[in-house]
Amino acid sequence: MVIKNIVGEQNPYANKKIDKREQIEQLKTQEATKTSGETADRVVLSSEGRLRGAALQSAKDAPDVRRKKVNDLKRQIQDGTYKPDLKRAAANLIRDDLDLLG
After folding, report:
1. Which of 17, 18, 36, 97 has an alpha carbon 20 to 30 Å from 69's alpha carbon atom?
2. Could you read off the pLDDT of 8-52 as tens digits, one per residue?
3. Which residues are CB-contacts of 46 (< 8 A; sequence separation ≥ 6)?
4. Are 33 and 42 a contacting pair, CB within 8 Å?
5. Quick one: residue 63, left, alpha or beta (phi over 0 = left, psi -120 to 50 = alpha)?
6. Which domain holds residue 47?
7. Is 102 in the same domain as 67?
8. CA–CA separation, 61 vs 55, rounded Å?
9. What pLDDT does residue 90 have?
10. pTM (predicted TM-score)
11. DSSP tag of 100
12. Which secondary structure element, helix H or strand E, spans residue 61, and what is its range?
């Protein structure tokens, strides 16, 4: 499906520069479409979209290395033996807030 703009340029991304890799990939997909004669719809992801997808897949594939620690903490909470270090927790919260500000 082709949508043509009758009233002028309305694409908010029209003035943004596209990096060379994306231009090369777009040219390759255009050439592949021309040679195969396809007129089907297609999806092209930006480099950021591909990076996010790869990060999500890596997170899904990563082993749950903290499972033992989580299970130990759950057991301590259920037994009533969990004694958190409140000063350390408060310091971490303050540190995180300061990191967000500056």
Report:
1. 97
2. 555 555 555 556 677 778 788 777 766 655 567 788 888 888 899
3. 22
4. yes
5. beta
6. 18-62
7. yes
8. 10
9. 95
10. 0.33
11. H
12. helix 47-61
